[in-house]
Specification:
The chain is an alpha/beta fold. It has seven domains: 163 residues; 152 residues, no CATH class; 78 residues, no CATH class; 222 residues, no CATH class; 313 residues, no CATH class; 121 residues, no CATH class; 235 residues, Rossmann fold, CATH 3.40.50.300. The chain is built from 63 helices and 34 strands. Helix 8 crosses helix 10. The longest helix is centred in the middle third of the chain and has 31 residues. It is globular and about 110 Å long. It holds the Pfam family AAA_12. Belongs to the CWF11 family. InterPro entries: Aquarius_b-barrel (IPR048966), Aquarius_insert (IPR048967), Aquarius_N (IPR032174), CWF11_fam (IPR026300), DNA2/NAM7-like (IPR045055), DNA2/NAM7-like_C (IPR041679), DNA2/NAM7_AAA_11 (IPR041677), P-loop_NTPase (IPR027417).
Length: 1532
């Protein structure tokens, strides 16, 4: 932590003293940052100003040699290697012991030193070592700032990019041989290597990186260990012999320049790093302790060297990263075992040193991956039983060896395995051996250590090697099961586990990482569990810190603890008592349950706050805290050394424990917020009194740990449960962590079965395309696209490159085809072997594993209209069964013509039109039709989504992702009517948008279900919640039975036939179906034009039809009308059969469960709801066949994985048939508030993004219909071939210029701002850390907004965005003061941050960039894309031109802006309501406003004119109300 602080202050590495400081500030500083202020670097961003950059020596050198301006000159400046060497030596401290300051590296990076100078002029043969290291340092900086690092290295040089990079790697690996590297250079060298192995998805990097951990690495093994490994694996032995034979031939044929394989980089680089690490590790701790040095008055003498410590930490992180991915683990782990690296790390003095805490935690993480249960060579995971069997076999081998050859270990040989595996027992037995005996056992007989190892002469080392090899380790799942889910005070303030928001990426952390690949599903779940738990811990810590600062804990004159402050989320505890501790369950040591009562008093609270406390409900998580305020002298002592005390130390927080609410009672003991049904709704009464008793369940694992600690310490130990005096709650939306962690833990304890076609690609191995439908055996040959196509020409446009054969409904060639169409595709080629059950194939990592996909069964025979449906069978939508598009077993059909289709050209598609069946005589029977003209890529996405397998759709802004998703579900429902689809999104807003569009398609409402808290926000009169759907089914039952009763009267049948759904079923069979069959028989005999009208048995029932049923002119037409009426009746009785279950089930809970598990065909929920309710879904037997995820690039990895496993597996097979992921990885990733987890652990990586990085094929929608083409140019460079839909080039709104504004987009340069009576210029400010504001930009932007309002622009068409929460708050204040109360202005539609506005749009966007000292996080290209793509007609950006124009990442967008004036270009006399407007792209002769003052004067003048005109109009009685709509993002 101290190293972080020293580097932040610009003195990184100066001096050797390292004192870890306490955590930073609490929520008062960090809470405002949230997702909307994740700065890449906190301190340097604040300290590095534009003026400093402009006047810097490096900037002047850049201006003369490699800046954009310099390179545009003719002739361009020549490359001078001396400049590189001089910069590296002086600025990057290449010849100095001290590390370079971060500020100097940042200036070089901002100047595009790498892209414009280092890499274009790099030559592998002539480049100096300084040149090589400078490239490595600059790439490290790009990784630290989270910007694309390898993009600048793809420029073609003298050789192709790959060849050039290989040459660079060869130089980089040997740079230590050419010059003596300083310690900070070795850290940079190691860090660059680490970044290479984290970028294996980059083709340029992958080859050179993997060559370092391939089979030649085993040349560094000891001879005995090498022979042992070859003996264990015949396949590896074969490869090894072949490699050795090949090398011998090459040596015989080569000249004197032949390099032996063991001396080549592939075999020597990693072993050389290991040797270097061990040398540093052995000498890092001084002989003088820190206490002794301080006593002598020289603290540096006893301190650990900061850079050496960082090198050791980085190296352990490097090894952990290599072991956590199979391609890099396979051969490396054996080498690490042979060198006993783990034992040497644990025995190193640093491991026990006070400053080695982080190193110790990193070694523990390394230990986990060293012992991970898997076969390194095959990649096969080992079960707990496999691990146990292997362990006991290893112990028994040791016992047999000891029994035969080591008499001193006879007792060990005769002991049982359960005794021998204990560390203490092993140590006791091994102590009987002398050093030579132990050496022979370890190095020669067991081959655990190389006999030439320098530490092989250490008795303690050899004993530790033996013990670590043969002791029994706990399974990780057991550790997780025994782990408390609530954070305690020890974890909350541990900076190594939960870093503060100031993390800059310069130091290591003992945290797992979400890489491209995972060892197995358990490894995947474990990493996500730990990171999700720590992210939740960070958020809880911020809330705790905020509550501590507000509640005002202090002591009165009598030394009693009192609370003088007030906190909305925290209350003093009146009383706390543990009321029950249940006995442990069989086989467990912890209690089965621990229950406690908490009494609080809400008397001093406002009414709204008291209501919030009264609304605490079952399963809410609360936190119990013990506060003991420190004396001022204690705080003074903490700050003496310059450290900042943590909020826990500052406010005296000594204990934190979490708990879950069971029930809440009022002062009279009445139950509040009952969710168990014990209190009926009519019996509910308002709570009595102001005291509340909250019964909570404590964490049993934590309780047992606390009791064990009390017992171990003995007398004098303080009971943590005896002093709780504060109770804290959290916002419900932020308090879901426990349920999510429980879901992850449940998955770790289950056998998580994924579809075979998905498992390997999910873990990151195998062919990335193996899960696509083209490579699976069960493709749909014929697809009924329903209303996807608008006409025949649309079909032709949708399949470019294919010849189409149109057929009429009878299968004959069709010259005038009409919608709708079924498309039959050519028979697929032989499926990819990955999709076949029982077929094994090689993985790219040489592992083999079964990949079985059970083919879906053939469809059941479809009933015809003539027979009518069996009333008791599963229902289907109108016409689907008759069309032969699916059976009742939920399987995918091949379509009616698939089996009989003739062999056709592989490029030819058969397009058969058909006449949709008449659904009935009433308007409500007619299904709605699609009006969207889908593009060819969208049609391919629909086709892919309907087929089994994985479908990935990348949807750039405005390309119709939602429409595509809706059509996929619509077509899928009609092709596979018996299958169920689970719909998942990240946000409630996106889910509701999607759900509302599905409601408007031809999917019956009774099959739709919306789960979660956002259902009430649906803009519909119907209730799609579980209870609402049940009530709708019951109401529908009454309506349908009334129809049956009406029909019974017409048939003169007893009306009791309509009493129940069951009796209605008999009525269907006896009176409806029989009459229909009789009618059909008679009509077929007569076949006259008039017979239908005379014979139709239901004409009285359909007498209220809006149109005449039968015209008597055509038998065929009237017969089809009769069939339509019968289909109406059939659907009605099918609905009644579906209502029967709700009639039989009397309890509301049973009805709700039946609805969710049986009735609903499309179930929609957010990813958070899926994680929260997984246990409930499993208990109810929830089933689904298809999974569609919208916004999947915004969903955390684990929140994408959990919805795939919301159902129990059947017979060891996964039911899931399709996974459809729709998102955009070029926009913002999932929300992760802690920068360390985001930058170091990649927790913000979505599964969608990881699949893209792995090379998974995807479909990118390639036509946008949101923005003007000129506005789309601001972001379409990020996408390949993103074009425009016709509407943005044809509709009048897109063809007309913005009234009063010369351009449809502009960058307005905002200089420093001067407040009234203040001569100090102001740019960005920071009232509290990371709460960035810019008064000048806020005033300028609001003035622009006022100008637009005065020009007639509607307020609801204007949104104001900014990149920081601080600026958002400032903008709202300015709007309230200057606009809200004035009828000419009002409030804009929304004031929000760019991050919060993702997924939304408006006609006109005003954007404030805020920063003037550093670019800030708009440098993240994903955030830039979001900011540039929110507007439809106009985008106006306010910022500091001199800063942002020099940012490399912003150039593709800013280039367009800077081609236009950077001052307002206006047409003040134009008005929004003008009938005739300028064409877009014609700026005319605008008036340029040279400064903000001129703009403000113009607006003031127009305001006075408006007020005068309004006054005159009011006098004449012609005043018009101002239009305004305001939505605050916090109210969403």
């Amino acid at each position: 932590m101290a190293r972080q602080q020293s580097q932040r202050s610009g003195t990184a590495g100066r001096g050797r003293k390292l004192v870890r400081s306490q955590p930073g500030q609490g929520k008062g500083s960090g809470a405002a940052v949230d997702r909307d202020a994740p700065t890449s670097y906190r301190p340097m961003g604040a300290g590095l100003t534009v003026q400093e950059i402009a006047s810097d020596r490096l900037t002047k050198i850049a201006d003369a040699n490699w800046s954009t301006a310099a390179l545009s000159k003719q002739p361009t400046p020549k490359f001078r290697a001396s400049i590189v060497d001089d910069i590296y030596s002086k600025e990057l401290h290449g010849d100095q012991d001290e590390a370079p300051t971060l500020k100097r590296i940042m200036v070089l990076e901002i100047s595009q030193f790498l892209e414009n100078y280092l890499w274009p002029h790099f030559d592998a043969e002539s480049a100096s070592p300084q040149h090589v290291m400078a490239i490595a340092v600059m790439i490290n900086e790009k990784f630290r700032e989270n910007v694309p690092a390898w993009a600048g290295l793809t420029q073609p040089g003298k050789a192709g990019p790959s060849e050039k990079f290989v040459g660079f790697c060869q130089r980089f690996w040997k740079v230590g041989e050419q010059r003596q590297l300083q310690m900070h250079e070795r850290v940079s060298h190691l860090h660059f290597s680490l970044h290479m192995f984290q970028s294996l998805e980059t083709e340029m990097v992958r080859g050179p990186a993997l060559s370092l951990v391939s089979l030649p690495l085993w040349y560094a093994l000891s001879e005995g260990r090498l022979n042992l490994e070859r003996f264990k694996n015949e396949r590896i032995n074969k490869y090894w012999k072949h490699m050795v034979k090949k090398e011998k031939k090459a040596a015989a044929a080569a000249d004197a320049g032949f390099i032996p394989p063991e001396q080549r980089t592939e075999a020597s680089f990693v072993p050389g790093l290991l040797d270097d690490f061990l040398r540093v590790l052995s000498g890092i701790v001084p002989d003088t302790t820190l206490e002794e040095a301080m006593a002598e008055g020289d603290a540096e003498k006893g301190a650990v060297d900061a850079q050496a410590l960082l090198f050791c930490e980085r190296f352990v992180e490097f090894l952990t990263d290599l072991l956590s991915q199979l391609p890099t683990r396979r051969f490396l782990r054996t080498l690490l075992e042979d060198r006993a690296i783990l034992v040497k790390c644990r025995m190193a003095p640093l491991f026990q040193h006070p400053q080695g805490k982080l190193f110790q935690q990193l070694v523990d993480l390394l230990s986990f991956y060293m012992a991970f249960p898997m076969d390194d060579l095959s990649g096969a995971s080992l079960t707990d039983a496999d691990v146990t069997a292997s362990h006991y076999e290893r112990v028994q081998q040791l016992q047999r060896l000891a029994f035969r050859h080591i008499p001193k270990l006879k007792a060990l040989a005769l002991s049982n395995c359960g005794t021998v595996e204990k560390r203490a027992v092993l140590t006791e037995h091994l102590a009987r051996l002398a050093l030579p005996e132990l050496q022979q056992l370890v190095t020669q007989q067991l081959r655990l250590v190389n006999e030439a190892d320098p530490m092989a002469s250490s008795l303690h080392f050899l004993q530790e090697v033996m013990v670590s090899t043969y002791e029994r380790r706990r399974f990780q799942t057991d550790i997780i099961n025994d782990m408390p889910l609530y954070p305690t005070e020890a974890v909350l303030w541990d900076e190594n586990q939960v870093p503060s928001v100031h993390y800059t990426g310069e130091t290591c952390l003992a945290l797992p990482k979400l890489n491209l690949q995972f060892l197995d599903t358990t490894d995947y779940l474990l990493r996500n569990f730990n990171l999700f738990r720590l992210e939740a811990t960070y958020e809880i810590r911020e809330d705790v810190a905020d509550a501590l600062g507000r509640i005002g804990c202090t002591r009165d004159d009598d030394d009693n603890i009192i609370f003088k402050g007030w906190a909305r989320m925290a209350l003093p505890i009146v009383d706390f008592a543990v009321i029950e501790v249940q006995k442990p369950n069989v086989g467990e040591a912890r209690p089965a349950a621990v229950t406690a009562d908490i009494i609080i008093n809400t008397a001093g609270l406002r009414g709204d706050v008291r209501s919030e406390w009264d609304d605490v409900k079952q399963h809410d998580v609360l936190f119990l805290m013990t506060m003991d305020p420190p004396e001022p002298s204690d705080i003074a002592r903490l700050t003496e050394a310059g450290a900042t005390p943590s909020p826990a130390e500052r406010y005296g927080l000594t204990c934190v424990r979490g708990c879950e609410v069971l029930e809440v009672k009022d002062e009279a003991g009445g139950l509040m917020n009952d969710f168990t049904g014990r209190i009926k709704r009519e019996d509910w009464k308002p709570p009595e009194g102001l005291k509340r008793t909250i019964t909570v369940a404590l964490d049993t694992a934590q309780y047992q740990m606390d009791m064990n600690h009390l017992q171990a310490v003995g007398a004098g130990a303080e009971d943590p449960y005896a002093g709780f005096n504060v109770l804290m709650r959290r916002k419900p939306k932020e308090n879901n962590f426990k349920a999510v962690l429980e879901s992850i833990r449940d998955l770790m304890n289950e056998v998580a079965i994924m579809p075979d076609w998905l498992e390997k690609v999910f873990l990151g191995y195998g062919d990335p395309a193996a899960a696509m439908y083209q490579n699976l055996p069960n493709q749909l040959r014929t697809i009924d696209f329903k209303d996807t196509f608008l006409d025949a020409q649309h079909v032709k446009e949708s399949f470019p490159g294919h010849s189409l054969r149109f057929l009429d409904p009878q299968g004959q060639p069709n010259e005038e085809p009409k919608c709708p169409f079924r498309v039959t595709f050519p028979a697929p080629a032989k499926p990819h072997t990955d999709g076949q059950k029982g077929v094994k194939r090689k993985r790219t990592n040489a592992a083999e594993m079964d990949d079985a996909t059970a083919p879906e069964a053939a469809p059941a025979a479809a009933p015809s209209d003539d027979a009518g449906p069996k009333f008791a069978t599963a229902s289907a939508p109108n016409g689907t069964a008759a069309n032969g598009k699916g059976g009742a077993d939920g399987t995918d059909p091949a379509g009616p013509s698939a089996a009989s289709a003739p062999e056709v050209d592989s490029n030819q598609l058969t397009v058969q039109s058909y006449i949709p069946q008449d659904p009935g005589p009433y308007p409500q029977d007619k299904p709605p039709e699609n009006t969207v003209r889908f593009t060819p890529v969208q049609v391919e996405a629909i086709k892919s989504g309907v087929n089994p397998g994985l479908t990935m759709v990348v949807g750039p802004p405005g390309t119709g992702k939602t429409d595509t998703a809706v059509q996929i579900m619509h077509v899928l429902y009609h092709n596979c009517p018996a299958q169920r689809t689970l719909l998942i999104t990240h946000s409630n807003q996106a889910l509701n948008d999607l759900f509302q569009k599905i409601m408007q398609r031809d999917v019956p409402a009774r099959y739709l279900l919306r789960l979660g808290m956002g259902e009430q926000e649906l803009q519909t009169e119907q209730d799609f919640s579980r209870v609402g759907r049940v009530n709708a089914m019951l109401e529908r039952r009454i309506q349908l039975l009334a129809e049956v009763e009406r029909m019974a009267k017409q048939f003169n049948v007893a009306e009791d036939m309509a009493y129940t759904c069951e009796s209605a079923g008999y009525f269907w069979l006896l009176h409806v179906l029989s009459r229909w069959e009789r009618f059909q028989s008679e009509a077929q005999k007569l076949q006259t034009a008039e017979c239908i009208k005379d014979l139709f048995p239901f004409k009285d029932y359909f007498a209220d039809a809006p149109e005449q049923l039968f015209h008597g002119s055509s038998f065929a037409a009237d017969m089809e009308k009769a069939r339509g009426c019968f289909r109406h009746l059939r659907t009605m009785f099918q609905e009644l059969e579906e209502c029967r279950a709700f009639e039989l089930l009397k309890g509301q809970a049973d009805r709700v469960n039946y609805l969710m598990t049986k009735q609903a065909k499309i179930v929609a929920m957010t990813c958070t709801h899926a994680a929260l309710k997984r246990r409930e879904f499993l208990q109810l037997g929830f089933k689904y066949d298809n999974l569609l995820m919208e916004e999947s690039a915004q969903i955390l990895e684990i929140e994408t994985f959990i919805p795939m496993l919301l159902q129990k597996q059947e017979d060891g097979l996964a039911r899931l048939k399709r996974v459809i992921l729709i998102g955009d990885h070029h926009q913002l990733p999932p929300v992760v508030k802690n920068m360390a987890f985001q930058k170091h652990s990649h927790l913000d990586q979505s599964l969608f993004t990881r699949f893209v990085r792995l090379g998974m094929p995807y479909l990118q929608l390639n036509a946008q219909g949101r923005a003007r083409p000129s506005l789309a140019n601001l972001y379409n460079w990020r996408y390949q071939e993103l074009g425009d839909l016709p509407n943005v080039r044809q509709q009048p709104a897109y063809l007309q210029a913005n009234a009063g504004l010369a351009y449809d987009f502009q960058f307005i340069d905002v200089p420093d701002y001067y407040l009234p009576n203040d001569s100090n210029p102001r740019g960005e400010s920071e009232p509290v850390p990371h709460f960035y504001q810019n008064v000048g930009e806020a005033e300028y932007l609001v003035t622009w907004y006022q100008y637009m309002r005065l020009a007639g622009y509607p307020a609801e068409k204007i949104s104001i965005l900014t990149t920081y929460n601080g600026q958002k708050a400032l903008l709202k204040d300015v709007i309230e003061n200057r606009c809200a109360g004035h009828p000419a202005f009002g409030r804009p539609h929304k004031v929000a941050t760019v991050d919060k506005y993702q997924g939304q749009q408006n006609n006109y966007i005003l954007l404030s960039l805020v920063r003037t000292r550093a670019v800030g996080h708009i440098r993240d290209v994903r955030r830039l894309v979001v900011a540039m793509s929110r507007s439809r007609l106009g985008l106006y950006v306010f910022g500091r031109q001199s800063l942002f124009s020099n940012c490399y990442e912003l150039q593709p967008s800013l280039t367009h802006f800077l081609q236009r004036p950077t001052v307002p270009a206006l047409h003040p006399h134009e008005h929004f309501q003008d009938a005739k407007k300028r064409p877009v792209g014609v700026p005319g002769q605008p008036i340029l406003m040279p400064s903000y003052q001129h703009m403000a004067t113009l607006v003031e003048q127009k305001r006075l004119e408006w007020e005068a005109a309004t006054h005159n109009a009011a006098i004449a009685g012609m005043s018009r109300p101002a239009d305004e709509v305001y939505v605050d993002e916090d109210d969403e």
